[in-house]
Amino acid sequence: MASGGANQQSTAAYKQYCHVKRLTAHQRAVSCVKFSNDGTLLASASLDKTLIIWSASTLSLLHRLVDHSDGVSDLAWSSDSHYICSASDDRSLRIWDARAPFDCLKILKGHSDFVFCVNFNPQSNLIVSGSFDETIRIWEVKTGKCLRVIRAHSMPVTSVHFNRDGSLIVSGSHDGSCKIWDAKEGTCLKTLIDDKDPAVSFTKFSPNGKFILVATLDSTLKLWNYSTGKFLKIYQGHTNRVYCITSTFSVTSGKYIVSGSEDKCIYLWDLQSKAMLQKLEGHSDTVISVTCHPAENKIASAGLDGDRTIRIWIQDA
Question: What's the predicted TM-score (pTM) here?
Answer without folding.
Answer: 0.95
